[in-house]
């Protein structure tokens, strides 16, 4: 039995909670090091069912679930588009469609998107959750923050997530395939170079570097690629945890903070996160029962 096999499974829907807060790409070790600065509770390391959001979502929400999902991640949306038909970033052949399994999805990734940042801020997610509470909603509620997932909003421009979102814009709720995302020199370069590099470590590392803006070059020169990305990632996680703490103060019920998957920074030759890549850095996630 491997160390991963010995971990308790996350089993999101089989556990007790009224409010589930999902921090996208929050790996367990970084979360464990800093969460006590923001939250009190009982922390457990659990094994996620997937190593990227499309895999996690499609394997978690398999039935018909009476809950409301506030989603800052475009892969979990109300548009009725199967994951396999997305134009950018799904990297899977999954037939799963969020709206077929989740009763109510609020598309925060669309409604609250910040075009300048190329992301949705954690503050916007918190405010949307507060508004949901003001309606008197008393069912199970999932609040999915985009951070600590890239883009690193204090440092980068959010190019990758901006392209993902563009594939959903102006799509009628008919299940039709979304339009192509706007092209760019960077996008053309990535599509040209990735087939040549394959799924190599270099290709994955380049995938993370295109998230950054030119101003990050100084940090990379002084701190190295791995050190710089880790620092930016922790900053993103702190932003999400600070907003989580503010939201938790408004909640009356059983609150759990967890993640869909983790993030890799070169461990086992892996960077970012990819479906069906079962290494500790990607599938070991927190399960914090908040006091």
How would you sum up this structure, described in words?
The chain is α/β, with parallel strands linked by helices. It has one domain (12-290): Alkaline Phosphatase, subunit A (3-Layer(aba) Sandwich), CATH 3.40.720. The protein is 34% helix and 16% strand. The chain has helices at residues 28-34, 53-60, 108-111, 122-134, 159-166, 185-197, 201-209, 217-248, 280-283, and strands at residues 19-23, 41-47, 65-71, 102-107, 140-145, 255-258, 264-265, 271-272, 284-290. The strands form 2 sheets. A 7-stranded mixed β-sheet has the order 2-9-6-1-5-3-4. A two-stranded antiparallel ribbon has the order 7-8. A hairpin with a 5-residue loop joins β7 (264-265) and β8. The protein starts with 18 loop residues before the first strand and ends with a strand. Mean pLDDT is 84; it is low at 170-187.
